């Protein structure tokens, strides 16, 4: 597919050619072109170039103006201030460029592919076996899914990895407790059985949320027993040894926990409207066979050393409150392995076996020090080098309206399914209020309620820079006004309504027509989509895409206010051109929202 060259790129080429002609010694000089409120574009690079050439900046700017080819692309160009250039493009150039985007045979709307695509392994959505997912799992899943979609769209080969917590001391505790209380998972509370008649699963524990509710109860009971009974604690730790040694009966019970947890994980991710494939789930246990070798390689290379019975890696710049170095512990003094051993083994697998160029970890910012030390250790060991890099996409905390970490009224962590259910209920009520005007059936109301509710949760997360905390406010999230996904979804649905009412009129570009100010503003914003997507893909910043889409919907609203689309008073060509503009806007909204993992219903 031949990508569509943006107006920005075209104008940049013209100015670069004129600059080179005016200053032959500065070939490929950068005019530093930016969008501007005073004109369509402003070039700010003349001042620095004039200083370097010991020339008068206004004189140099005037020479560039004289050498710029005008007419087809550039309509007006003038010197401003001490040597800036204000550039206005022609209406024809805007419409022709948009027409090329609209007719892209690959349905990419002219978005180019990365110049040098590679292979990225992205580690995201990492729930824990035998534990319910809570609000803390939301951001890794939502951000990771969006980054994965954007990278794939940009042409990158993406390998998904869900590093679930499926190994360690807690499983010895769980397995031993179930061994001593064999009917624990058969016992159901009234809350477990409510609304789940007929559900069946391994060992009679039900499926999905019910299965996890039972496992979660088992975990709490086992933890209480573990913390209060030293003899049980000893037996549980012996069971960990059995698990690591591959004892068949112990492994069978462990596998049961994993399988039932996966049923639950899949049900939650389905509610989040995300595809999680079983083959992509490679938890901590998946690297067990590599741990010994990882430790041996680190020790033999001198990267790690023994200290107080543990295999450690030390860093000059990582010290504790007492001023002493804080090591990365790869192997504990009791012979067990720390998280670092698993993470380093995963890096070896992803670099050596999966041939990754880039490793992305969508993980809570509170783990930043751990990953800083893990990445540096892998670099010292030679597993990460200049051609293979690792990066943590750290994210902040989900806060309540009070600005404190989001909790229930009882102070408990909010279950993710409860949060999603409430969002869907709120959104369904909003959809129902408008349903009569567009004649939605009950089935459509329910479906759109899911799309709007889940979309509201995702967009609130993705419209904030990942490193920042954000407040979880459902009232604001499902509002029809402001920077919300509902506002964007209604903008898309409104265009679909106009297209349905257009009758025989069809979207068609008419480059010969002059454009109204609101048409120009909408068209110029549409033109930025391709470059914006690549910028988001290379910087792993989906919040920039969310901001672009909100601005696009805002331009569309202004366009509606100032330019009537369907009007008998308008010539046929004007109607067709405006239909073309709104249709391309809707297609861009649809594609952009899809990259964020959000649906855009045709009718709302």
Task: Describe, in plain words, how this protein is organized in 3D.
This protein is an alpha/beta fold and 604 residues long. Among the domains are: 7-89, Arginyl tRNA synthetase N-terminal domain (Gyrase A, domain 2, 2-Layer Sandwich); 168-282, no CATH class. The chain has 21 helices and 13 strands. It has a four-stranded antiparallel β-sheet. It has a four-stranded parallel β-sheet with strand order 6-5-10-11, with helices on both faces. It has a three-stranded antiparallel β-sheet with strand order 7-8-9. A hairpin with a 3-residue loop joins strand 3 (74-80) and strand 4. Helix 2 crosses helix 3 and helix 17 (485-501) packs antiparallel against helix 21. The protein is globular and about 85 Å long. Residues 189-206 have low confidence and may be disordered.
Number of distinct helices: 21
Query: How much helical structure, as a percent, in the residues?
Result: 40-55%
Mean pLDDT: 91
Biggest sheet layout: 4 strands, antiparallel
Approximately how much beta-strand content do the residues carry? 5-15%
- Any low-confidence stretches, pLDDT <50, length ≥5? 189-206
Query: Compute the gyration radius: what is it?
Result: 29 Å
Biggest sheet strand line-up: 1-2-4-3
Q: How widely separated are the two ends?
A: 34 Å
Shape: globular
Total count of strands: 13
């Amino acid at each position: 597919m031949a990508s569509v060259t943006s107006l920005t790129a075209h104008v940049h080429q013209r100015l670069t050619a004129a600059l080179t002609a005016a200053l032959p010694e500065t070939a490929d000089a950068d005019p530093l072109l930016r969008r501007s409120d005073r004109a369509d574009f402003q070039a700010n690079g003349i001042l620095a170039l004039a200083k370097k050439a010991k020339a008068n900046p206004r004189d140099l700017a005037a020479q560039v103006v004289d050498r710029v080819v005008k007419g087809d692309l550039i309509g007006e160009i003038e010197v401003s201030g001490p040597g800036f250039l204000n550039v206005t493009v022609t209406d024809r150039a805007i419409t022709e460029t948009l027409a090329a985007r609209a007719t892209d045979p690959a349905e990419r709307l002219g978005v180019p592919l990365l110049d040098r695509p590679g292979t990225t392994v992205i580690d995201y959505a990492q729930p824990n076996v035998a534990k319910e997912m809570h609000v803390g799992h939301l951001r890794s899943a939502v951000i990771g899914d969006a980054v994965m979609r954007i990278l794939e769209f940009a042409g990158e080969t993406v390998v998904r990895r869900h590093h679930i917590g499926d190994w360690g001391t807690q499983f010895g505790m769980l397995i031993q407790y179930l061994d001593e209380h064999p009917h624990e998972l058969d016992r159901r509370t009234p809350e477990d059985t409510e609304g789940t008649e007929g559900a069946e699963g391994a060992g009679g524990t039900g499926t999905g949320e019910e299965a996890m509710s039972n496992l979660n109860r088992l975990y709490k009971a086992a933890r209480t027993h573990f913390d209060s009974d030293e003899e049980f604690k000893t037996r549980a730790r012996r069971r960990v040894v059995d698990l690591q040694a591959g004892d068949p009966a112990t492994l069978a019970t462990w596998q049961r926990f994993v399988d039932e947890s996966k049923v639950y994980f899949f049900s939650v991710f389905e509610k989040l409207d995300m595809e999680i494939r079983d083959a992509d789930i490679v938890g901590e246990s998946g690297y067990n066979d590599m741990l010994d070798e990882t430790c041996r390689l680190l020790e033999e290379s001198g990267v790690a050393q023994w200290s107080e019975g543990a295999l450690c890696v030390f860093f000059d710049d990582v010290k504790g409150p007492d001023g002493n170095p804080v090591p990365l512990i790869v192997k504990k003094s009791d012979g067990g392995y720390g998280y670092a051993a698993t993470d380093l083994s995963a890096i070896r697998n992803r670099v050596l076996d999966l041939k990754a160029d880039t490793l992305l970890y969508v993980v809570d910012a509170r783990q930043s020090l751990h990953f800083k030390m893990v990445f540096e250790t892998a670099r010292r060991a030679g597993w990460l080098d200049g051609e293979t890099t690792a990066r943590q996409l750290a994210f902040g905390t989900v806060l309540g309206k009070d600005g404190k970490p989001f909790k229930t009224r009882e102070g408990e962590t909010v279950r993710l399914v409860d949060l999603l259910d409430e969002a869907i209920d709120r959104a369904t009520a909003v959809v129902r209020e408008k349903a009569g005007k567009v004649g939605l059936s009950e089935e459509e109301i329910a479906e759109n309620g899911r799309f709007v509710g889940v979309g509201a949760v995702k967009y609130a997360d993705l419209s904030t820079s990942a490193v920042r905390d954000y407040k979880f406010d459902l009232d604001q999230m499902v509002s029809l006004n402001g920077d919300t996904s509902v506002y964007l979804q209604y903008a898309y649905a409104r265009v679909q309504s106009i297209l349905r009412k257009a009758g025989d009129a069809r979207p068609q570009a008419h480059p010969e027509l002059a454009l109204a100010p609101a048409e120009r503003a909408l068209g110029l914003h549409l033109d930025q989509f391709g470059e914006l997507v690549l910028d988001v893909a290379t910087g792993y910043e989906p919040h920039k895409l969310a901001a672009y889409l909100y601005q696009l919907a805002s331009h569309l609203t202004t366009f509606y206010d100032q330019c009537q689309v369907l009007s008998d008073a308008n010539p046929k060509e004007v109607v067709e051109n405006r239909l073309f503009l709104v249709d391309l806007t809707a297609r861009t909204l649809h594609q952009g929202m899809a990259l964020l993992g959000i649906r855009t219903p045709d009718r709302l």
